[in-house]
Amino acid sequence: MKSRSVKWLMAGGVAYGALMAAGAAQAQEGATLEEVVVTGSRIVRQDYVANSPIVSVGQAAIENTGQVTVEKSLSQMPQFSGSFGQGNTGSTSTGLSGGQSYASLRGLGSKRTLILMDGRRLQPSNPDGSVDLNTIPEALIENVEIITGGASTAYGSDATAGVVNFRLKRNFDGLVVDSQYGVTEKGDGESFKLAVTAGSAFNDGRGRAVFSVDYTNRDRALQSSRDYYIFRQTTPGLSTIPQGTVLFGANLPTLAAVNSVFVGEYGLPALPGNAAGRYTGQIGFNTDQTIFSTAGVRVQNFRDPETNTAYIVNANAAGTAQQINFGYDGASMQSDLDRYAVFGKIEYDITDNLRSFAQFTFTDYESLGVSNPTLASNVYGLSVPVTNPHIPDEFRTILASRPDPSAPFTFYKALNILGPRLQKYSYTVYQLTGGLSGNVGVKDWTWDAYASFSRAKFDNEQTGGASASAAARLLNSPSGGADLCAGGWNPFGDLTPSQSCIDYLSRRTLNQNELEQRMMEASVQGGLFDLPAGEIRFAAGVDYRSNEYTFRADSLLNQPDGTSDVLGYSVLRDAGGSVDTYEIFGELLVPLLRDLPFVRQLNLDLGYRFSDYSSVGGIHTYKADIDWSVVEGLRLRGGYNRAIRAPSVGELYAPVSTGSVAIGTAAATNTNGDPCDVRSSFRQGASGAQVRALCLTQGVPVSIIDSYQLGTAQVFALTGGNPDLEEETADTYSFGAVVQSPFDHPLFSRMSASVDWYSIKVTDAVGTLPVGNAFRFCFNEGGNNPNFDPGNYYCQLIQRNGASGVPLNPVQPLLNLGQFETSGVDVQFDWTVDMVDVGLGDNSGRLALNVTIGYLDSFKIQNLPESPTYDYVGTWGTAVEANAGQAHPEWKTVTSATYSWGPGSLGLRWRHLSEMKNSAVVITPTSTSRGVKAYDIFDLNGRVRLPWETDLRFGVNNLFDKAPPQAGDTEGNRDAQNYDVMGRSYYIGMRKRF
Fold it and tell me: Using an 8 Å Cβ cutoff, are 395 and 356 in contact?
């Protein structure tokens, strides 16, 4: 780890505040404040009252989570679902988001969560419009404000789920050095952070400048170091192993030929076959060049030692059907990160009425994804001619008994000889912003104008890949490849060829993405005229935004003949496009009533925005919110928002790419896997005959239809942009109350609470149709294809290899889907007590209690218009999109208690996620797929103020070392996005002011 030389800087102590500070509307009610702009509004006002549900998280609360990146801190809050971040550790696809960290409000995805910094948009790091939280200058965060529900009238597209606004510190004076170190109890997953921030006023206070440099390093943590990760399943899974296996497809050998080897040569019991006297299993190769049986039959004559990459499992209780599974024990629980960030801002008052600012952010970071070696299987299976000189003689006898004895055969092999596949994600993101503001000269009107230019460059480098053409040349070489590399390549058995042959097979590829954003905005705001209840205030403005996207594929993935030369990676084409947006907006704050019984003040906030997109045309958004102060200490808030999200430049123009998508393993007790698999509940259910017929129509050969097994738990699905997408629309309703204690007694005077109900409905939602749903719905799960019609929409997404029945790159289309709908209630309670008020004497300290509760009432998904709508509340396993989070607990709570005394404090935090069923039961109530148990975890932290302007902080996360629950049916599968998979960990930090 790069930070080891500076670990001596770290020493103990940290103060624990509530993870979610009291909502600003509660904390500030009745106070006299300077003029501010509330997140979600464009109008400057004297109070800090939000009409939409809003919470604020301070810097101390973020620090007290012990995380070095803000993404993990936010995901612990009830308003967020665990999303794409440090728990995403590797990928076998050429994706566009590796190494990034997102925020997913209400589980609706990062692209529906608008990220702002001081109320202004940031440069997206993903073509789908998502902003990577790694680009936030964390050292300068003062607080984070989160609004639930649409805010498109204030900020434009993307705020369908809500807004996360990072407010930075202003008027920074002096020099601050902050550092933190963390490590797990296992001694891995180390993290280090060092930030230096300096700021000062100049020219008699007319100018202010701040500059910050931040370095963050986070190490990998391996699953193999935790005993709750399992690398040897007890059920059949992936069967592509280093020894290599042969799939015969429809060209089956005779059972007599197979048993002539296993019985006649090896003296083993006879293997079974089908009614036609053909062998329907697979044949594998020992390192000593003998052969073994596997997949759907007994494993016989497997002579290599069983390892995590090749071990025997039973496919039935009797043990008459077995398989050799492949497992990978090199996976991570936590991705690594190496990040440098620079932020600078200068503000200068040119005159008393004209102010200017210039700001820049620069972030450069890298992350390395590690995944299993290349698997030459499914659509990437190898084709071997019968003339290959390395074919063992015993196997030649079997090949000769096939109906077409001279035909090549399909060969599956885990290419461990090339090592793990590594994906290096390198990002450079910068943004330059400058603007002017001043007084109009009419009443208290002010104007503001700014322009911004930003760019994100993303290089995705893959190593450890295998060349399809090189493998074909080696396999087809009359010399077994000796004419191409030293010694040639014998693929039969777990043999290691020469380094020359490894180099001949191995490939490095590099894909490059570039995103560019230009923005200009001008606005004016102020008071109009007085009504009996107060002054009507307004804001109005215009803006322009341009987003461009360019993708350049590696030539190996973009062959002139329209193919890809790298096994496991599909064809990628250069792509690009741009979207221009022109907008006009306005907002009106109307005081309706005041100083009446039960109406201290009643305000109406109206907003409207017209947006003209070069992609989808003109769109209208609007809102109507109320703020009602009923009596002292009771305020009601709520309203309606119409929001939109136009398809991003990436959703319109991103290249088609492939990725490994888990569909599970077929079994009679669940709906996982390929429905055509003879082990599946579809084949064994009441409609088994209709399923069989549909499988035959799709291309499963009749000769293997009654023995067909997919032999893997994933497929390689295709996804890409769609230039015909339309905008999605969101309607948000909210209503809530903010209550301050009515009691004067000091024991109860500092109590406050808020309760907010929300409902968000997104129609024409842009997203990929999950390939797992396509498989299940094609075969009538949920009544989606009652006639088992091969022309059904879902069935059209699936094509199969006519020789083996294996799915060929099923399509995950990007579409305007049906709709997403979620509703729930947020509750927050704060209570602070001086211990002297409970009789403990003077100087006995203070106790603060904070309870934050998220109740999810519904989480509905409709995949296509007119198709059934399913409610996934209280389930795990289904997400609206890949990075949105697949956990939808009915209850998610965070409770904290902090005791402060003198210069120190100590806090305990309790995090709770309720039990969840597997999402499969929503569509198939009889499914026995495993859900997730309830989860409770405790964190301890503290803070100490020392002399010399020094603060120390420390903490222990997962105090009792609680193991994460298993998620789903796959043994050892843990959800790193929502649960603590690292185990007990420690951190210690120091802040020094000069």
Answer: no
pLDDT digit string, tens, across residues 544-570: 999 999 999 999 998 888 788 999 887
Taking CA atoms, 608 is separated from 51, 53, 522, 541, 622, in Å, by 16, 19, 16, 11, 4
Q: Residues 823, 759: contact at Cβ < 8 Å?
A: yes
- Nearest Cα neighbor of 42 from 182, 168, 186, 153 is 153
DSSP label at residue 378:
G
pLDDT in tens, 64-103: 888 888 888 888 899 998 776 555 655 555 556 677 888 9
3-state secondary structure string across 433-476: EEEEEEECCCCCCEEEEEEEEEEEEEEEEEEEEEEHHHHHHHHH
Burial class (CB in 10 A: 0-12, 13-18, 19+), 902: exposed
pTM given for the model:
0.88
The pair of three-digit structure tokens given for residue 673, joined into one six-digit string: 């896997």
729 or 23, which is more confident: 729
Q: Which residues contact 372 (CB under 8 A, 6 or more apart)?
A: 92, 328, 330, 331, 414, 420, 421
How far from chain centre, in Å, is Cα 270? 50
Measured between alpha carbons, how far is 443 from 24 in angstroms, rounded to an integer?
A: 28
End-to-end distance of the chain based on CA atoms, in angstroms? 28
Are 164 and 103 within 8 A, CB to CB? Answer: yes
Helices and strands (DSSP H and E) totals, the chain: 13, 49
In the 3-class helix/strand/coil scheme, how is 654-720 assigned residue by residue? CCCEEEEEECCCCCCCCCCCCCCCCCCHHHHCCCHHHHHHHHHHHCCCCCCCCCCCCCCCEEEEEEC
Q: Considering only CA atoms, give the Rg of the chain.
A: 31
User: How far is Cα of residue 763 from the mean position of the Cα atoms in its chain?
Assistant: 22
Strands 599-613 vs 141-148: parallel, antiparallel or unpaired: unpaired
Place of tokens 């440098």: 340
- What is the model's pLDDT at position 16? 26
Sign of the Cα torsion 58, 63, 64, 67 reads positive
What is the DSSP code (8-state) at residue 965? P
SS3 track for 217-280: EECCEEHHHCCCCCCCCCCCCCCCCCCCEEECCCCCCEHHHHHHHHCCCCCCCCCCCCCCCECC
Q: Which residues contact 4 (CB under 8 A, 6 or more apart)?
A: none
One-letter amino acid at 505 equals L
d(CA 926, CA 668): 11
Report the Cα 760 to chain-centroid distance in Å. 21
848, 831 contact by CB (below 8 A): yes
Q: Which of 48-62, 286-300, 578-592 has the lowest mean pLDDT?
A: 48-62
